Amino acid sequence: MSPPWRGVIEEYRDWLPVTATTPVITLGEGGTPLVHSDWLSRRVGAEVWLKVEGGNPTGSFKDRGMTVAISVALAQGADACVCASTGNTSASMTAYAARAGLRPIVLVPQGKIAAGKLAQATVHGAHILQVRGTFDDCLVIARELSVRYPVTLVNSVNPLRLQGQKTAAFEVVDVLGDGPDLHVLPVGNAGNICAYWQGYQEYAAAGRASRLPSMWGIQADGAAPFVVGRPVAAPETVATAIRIGNPASWSLAADACDESGGRIGAVSDEQILRAQRDLAARDGVFVEPASAAGVAGLLSAAERREVPVGGQVVVTLTGHGLKDTATVMAGFDSVIDTVVDVEVHAAAAAAGLS
Length: 354
Ligand SMILES: *Cc1c(COP(=O)(O)O)cnc(C)c1O
What we know:
By secondary structure, the chain is an alpha/beta fold. Helices cover 41% and strands 14% of the residues. The chain has helices spanning 8-11, 38-44, 62-75, 88-100, 115-123, 135-148, 159-165, 167-176, 191-205, 225-228, 250-260, 269-283, 293-303, 325-329, 344-350, and strands at 34-36, 47-52, 80-84, 103-109, 127-131, 152-153, 182-186, 214-220, 263-267, 312-317. The protein has a six-stranded mixed sheet with strand order 1-2-10-7-8-9, with helices on both faces. The chain has a four-stranded parallel sheet with strand order 5-4-3-6, with helices on both faces. The site of pyridoxal-5'-phosphate has 18 residues, from α9.
């Protein structure tokens, strides 16, 4: 029997900015499933693998960076931490802060946080401030707080976050045996695409991979600053986790695309919701809307015949569907198909069994 997964700091200690004395605050994050998708592979004419990050302890990839950011914050003597969040950063930060005994302060934009994520921050004991503004406004305030007050900023502008998040690229290579041809993922604040690119490059430099993938980032049409080429003042999309108009890691992400021969595109909310349903119905993987953007982007690229034929493609599914059930349920007319009496034959007939 192989030993149980120990979380990303212990599994990838040599690759991370920690020392022997850094206290390790972990929930066993990372080690998430890489699932082959038969229907996507057939549809796009390549081998498509899904990196299911909803399998992390708080249900999104944010945990990979948070274990590093919170561990180092604790080592440096912090007693409070702050983040701006569209939901998942706060869900993750508050869980790790709870374990570390740090006081978590969360800044959220008005009225656009999925209920499951707010529940997570609440139950983990966060002080939640709602800002009359967008996510981008929240991030400005969070940065200022960390400069002027004794509180550690753990948004992905904190480089420790990207350090932890790069471990997802390590895991992909560890499982596939080499880098894929193409890596597709949703882009919001644009930290994760940089983290993956960094991870792939580090593994290649160390001889653990012989290939580097092209990095494709996917935004939502109503929140696509990379596609329009400038910040979007009032970003709008059902995919709340990527409802960001002014990505903090803009130039780093642009570099990752250029260097890897990739690009950033956008898909409609309709394409995102369709991909979300298809993933759930065909692969058995329930993701939140933002997490389906990568699949939607891959499908639309396949229609334009832009996917490398027969290549290895990895798509990151960033967060779990249970975080935001309201959005998906709004797409169904009713939950109950038929009401029956307590009678087995009536149930069979109604269910189409014979
Ligand atoms: C944070 C997040 C993203 C966007 O990641 P960035 O690093 O901000 O580009 C996408 N999907 C989900 C579910 C997220 O939580």
